Amino acid sequence: KTNSKLQLGLALSSHAVTDLYASFILGLIPVLALKFNLSIFLVSLLTSVSGISNSLTQPVFGFLSDKYGYRYFLIAGPLFSAIFISLLGVVPNYAIILVFLFLGNLAVASLHPPNAAMGGHYGGRRKGLANSLISFAGTFGYSIGSLFIILIIEKIGISFTPFAMIPGIIMAIILIKYLPKQSSYKEKSGNIAFFKSLIKVKKIKIGLLAMIIFVSFGRDLLWLTLITFMPLYFTQAGINLTNIGYIFTFFGLVGASGGLLAGYLWDKLKRKTFLIQVSLLLGLPFIFFIYNSRGIMPVVLFIISGFFFISSLPLCIRLAQDIFPTKLSIASALVMGLSQGLSALTMMLLGKLADHKGMPFATYIVLSIIIAGIILISFFPFLYRKAFERNVGFTGLTTTK
After folding, report:
1. Is 17:139 a contact under the CB 8 Å cutoff?
2. How far apart are CA 151 and CA 249, in angstroms?
3. What percent of the chain has pLDDT over 90?
4. Hey, which end of the chain has fewer CB within 10 Å, N or C?
């Protein structure tokens, strides 16, 4: 039990530190946009490259961590994300920024699947809460990352951003010392066989997974839209860089609290998918009225929206883990990786659309995708009942009906 608490503590702290660096780009967007005279499309390319590197590679890292154990991937996450992303402030041109963003977020991607799986392995009977705690830690780190790098830039100058890598290096040293030498939950059953089994698996099971990925895709696309457009929107509204950092910090912290509440309710409620639908549906009006409000209201609406949209991430991960209970890392990676990767690719198109039609129009397109996901996942309980009746291998969804 003590070791489980230690490992969960390491999962929480490593997730927080690694995601700290993942959000540096939010604080750098206004600075880089001014420095290199970037269009909305080129700004969206920054977040898209980050998302692609941080997501599409996650199934690969999920496969490798299930096969070889999580130790090396948990160490690589904070170490290399700290090194590459902290150098963004001193690189000389836009192309190198893209390269360093890709490499730094590749390190972030290496941590996420095994990190999420630790909640399933060490969470005991409260796996939903454990996943939400781990998600909360990452969201907390992400929420303060942009403010952290902004304060460095504002107080001592952009040329000192390499000093920001210190927390990541310290975290890596702690992980080297306290993570088990051999992973206690390394999968033995063969990951290649798992990927082959995806071809042969029952169509209903694939359908359930596709529903989760589509809902996650809509949520992740909205997330990317907000973190790309809002720094520019708030800058155009006359809000200074430091205050933008505080806004994103509150946005993340409010969202993290929503994730904790959602994780608690997940372990209590019977109809799991309803919780996902409610969290997404309640957030829609806040996003819609951001562009239709004046004064301080857009900031308030943006922060409140985080409570609903961020909270759905651990729920979707937990749902996928219940579909594939023997492959937790890969299940986590399929949701986080594919949905985030697809949303990152789509974000490039939205950036080009925003250059021609405006940021509000592009955002409303994303809201329509969210609505489609809410409707689609309404069929999840029905398909689950059919899958359960046919006994296709579910072990954790007996209360989803």
Report:
1. no
2. 12
3. 46
4. N
